[in-house]
Amino acid sequence: MVEKTKKRPAYRHTPAFILLFLAMEDLYGAALLNTLQRELPCYQTDSAVIYRSLQELEGDGSVSSYWETDTSGPAKKWYKITDKGQNRLSEFKNDIEMRKKNLEYFLESYKKLCE
Predict the structure, then answer these.
(1) For residues 62 and 85, is the Cβ–Cβ distance under 8 A?
(2) How many CB atoms lie under 10 A from the CB of residue 66?
(3) Between β-strands 27-28 and 63-68, what pairing exists: parallel, antiparallel or unpaired?
(4) Alpha-carbon distances, residue 46 vs 18, 33, 65 (angstroms)
(5) Could you give the 3-state DSSP secondary structure of residue 75?
(6) What is residue 2's three-state secondary structure?
(7) Helix (H, G, I), strand (E, B), or coil: what is residue 77?
(8) Helix (H) or strand (E) holding 60
(9) Angle, vertex CA 102, rays to CA 24 and CA 2, nearest 5
């Protein structure tokens, strides 16, 4: 039986995914959430996490925002990645590659134990 451990942040890589999607195109908050849910159906998140992450990314200069008021309906705050965000995205990529190697080692070692 697996012991219960302290709950880890389930949203550790949300900023990485936000920056990845913003590197592809400018998006507003709800569109980011929809993209995350469509592209990563097993990645559980909600709008509060998306908007909190966007606020942090904007605060550190990784994204900038602008308002679109030319369309019908309420104005939307759109986000775009900055040069600093591109650098941070690269750092996330390196971190994720390292974590992936560690997880692959675990899975291969566990597989050998089970043989």
Answers:
(1) yes
(2) 11
(3) unpaired
(4) 13, 7, 20
(5) coil
(6) coil
(7) strand
(8) none
(9) 110
Find the Cα–Cα–Cα–Cα dihedral 35, 37, 38, 43, rounded to 10°.
120
**pLDDT tens profile 93-106:** 999 999 999 999 99
Question: Can you tell me which residue has the tokens 């759109």?
Answer: 78
CA distances, 60 to each of 50, 54, 65, 85, 101 (Å): 15, 10, 13, 9, 29
Query: What's the token pair of residue 81?
Result: 């990645």
Residue found under tokens 């675990």? 106
Res 5 pLDDT > 80 = no
Q: What is the pLDDT of residue 8?
A: 46
Q: What is the pLDDT of residues 7-55, one digit of tens each?
A: 445 578 999 999 999 999 999 999 999 999 999 999 888 999 999 999 9
Model confidence at 72, pLDDT cuts 50, 70, 90, reads: confident
Distance CA 115, CA 23 (A): 43
Task: Map tokens 């650098």 to a residue.
Answer: 87
Domains of the chain: 14-114 (1.10.10.10)
